[in-house]
Design goal:
This protein folds into two domains: 5-167 and 294-304, Jelly Rolls (Sandwich), CATH 2.60.120; 171-273, Homeodomain-like (Arc Repressor Mutant, subunit A), CATH 1.10.10. The strands form two sheets. Strands 8-4-10-2-1-11 form a six-stranded antiparallel β-sheet. Strands 3, 5, 6, 7 and 9 form a five-stranded antiparallel β-sheet that branches. The protein is globular. The longest helix has 20 residues, at 146-165. The protein has helices spanning 99-102, 114-120, 126-140, 146-165, 170-177, 180-191, 200-207, 211-222, 226-244, 249-255, 261-272, 276-288, 298-304; strands at 5-13, 16-23, 29-34, 39-44, 49-56, 59-60, 64-65, 69-72, 77-84, 90-97, 291-292. It is 47% helix and 21% strand. Strand 1 and strand 2 (16-23) form a beta hairpin. The protein is of the alpha+beta class. The chain contains 13 helices and eleven strands.
Length: 305
Amino acid sequence: MEPTRYVEAGLTLNNAGVSILSSSAWPAKLDYTFSSDRHLLAMYLSKVGGEGSYSEGGDEHDFVPVGPVFFRPANLHLKVRGKAVGGRATRAVHCMLDDRRLQQLNVAGVDWADETLQATLDIRSSQLRSHFLRLMWEISQPSFATPFIADAMLTVMVSDLLNYLSPRDEKHEARLCANDEMVRKIRERICDLHAVTPTVAELADLCGVSDRHLLRLFRERAGMSLIEFIRQARLEKAMELLSSSNLRLKEIAFLLGFQSHASFTTAFGRESGMSPAEFRRAHRRSYRSPKPAEFHSAEDVAEAR
């Protein structure tokens, strides 16, 4: 059974479209194949789980984990399978892109080799995550300047995507791949929506390494500092809990690892430009009264995914 999705907000741009989607309950088991004649760059605000594999002309690629941020090239079939975090609401920001939009930065001419395709399913870019959050804010609180801001941001996001997918030094990659499992474990622990955000010391104990080694390893493999990732994950978790749960602010502050409601309010305001209460009031309206998306066919559902 496919999840029922709702369109909270959307915007049509030049050869592109941006929308915020939500589902009341995501299935616990994934077994779908998605395809579209448009490219999809997306970010889920809560962990969905599962793994994906591309197929083209009868050739299938290996299954790899699907992360919160991913890019699905047009006209390729993406099969998603495995266990998901089912039974709870999810939200996502989807950017649908035509070839003409991507041709501005030559992304449409990328050679989608195995390694490049696998990299698209778990895009670990702090810049893209930040852009997605800003884009979500612009779409949720539109003004006369929103189309211009969103269009410019989308161009920057495509540029960042191209840079992320550019080939890297093979020897460097081979050395870093040995640490992938450790970094994955760290990310899953930090991004667990309903678990208290861990400290660096707790993560180091989890991985059996020193604090210093963990900090160096994470920056090397993830392209950002562990402290920055924790701060960013906190903000994303806070936004998700504020918009889709009935937890009190002090309960959310505790889950995020803050010592007090006041320190949470200060940190959230510094990162987002508004207080937690203001964010909840602004986003609860769209969350509680979503408009059902009109998915009339499997192709429509696939494009929204």
